[in-house]
Amino acid sequence: MFGVFRRLKIGFGMARRSGRVLRAHPNLLILPLLGGIAGIAFVATLFGALYAGGVYDSGGAMLYVALFVIYLVETFVASFFAAALVAATRSVFHGDEPTVAGAMRQAWDHKWPLLVWSVIAAVVGVIIQAIESQDNIVAEVLAGLFAVAWSVMTYFVVPVIVFEDTSVTGIFSESARTFKDTWGESIGAMGAINLVTFAFVLVGALLGVVTFLVVPSGIGVAAAVVVGLSGIVLGLLIGKSLTGIAKTALYVYATEQTAPEFFEDMDFSGLGGDRGSSSVGGRI
């Protein structure tokens, strides 16, 4: 139990310092926003086409083909803008001023590894979906365990693609190795940032409720929807940005054994793999 609280404490420390980066460079929010818009537009278009074509009713192989396409494009879009965020964050750590256009150019330079990763992730996603679709509790449990293991192994895939020139197998082995070296901080950061994201989303929803109660009934509903959705979207964007920044900071520390800018007072060596030789110290 102590270990869980310590990881969360370090995770909140990661979230707080990631917030420093975001406050200093708020344009980083634009990247997850563009990624979300692109992803929603694609899914809405494809789902509309599938519904019109009756693919959902037909089921069978065509449904899995459609799922593959959805997973492929969604993964590529999400990975592309995540790669842009990682690249922009790395430039911040080097003391440079990041730009949206520059970050997207850097992500585009890695389009082929990102595409290969997206294909593999889409195949795995379809396999997990196929296992989960079985009317069998054992299959569902196995699919859940496989999904968790896959998420852990691929947690640092995007930073590896952006920063390393490695093979396809190297992408996965390097990602898994980095997670092993930083597992305490990674778990803590994921948990803490998820809690922070939930808090922001909750505040956004509450603002919508307050708006509904305060604004006259004629426009109260519309105003509440606008304010509430805006708050929720902003909370999700902040959470997504904090995740990308924290992940980049962890990867930089794990590979360079140096705390990046904005994280100099962070003690990364408290948890994770065997890094007793690290000289990075400071407060959590």
TrEMBL record:
Coiled coil: none
Cited InterPro entries: DUF6159
Pfam family, one: DUF6159
Keywords: Membrane, Transmembrane, Transmembrane helix
Bilayer-spanning residue ranges: 28-51, 63-88, 114-131, 137-163, 187-213, 219-238
Superkingdom field: Archaea
Protein name: Putative membrane protein
Organism per entry: Halapricum desulfuricans
Taxonomic classification: Archaea, Methanobacteriati, Methanobacteriota, Stenosarchaea group, Halobacteria
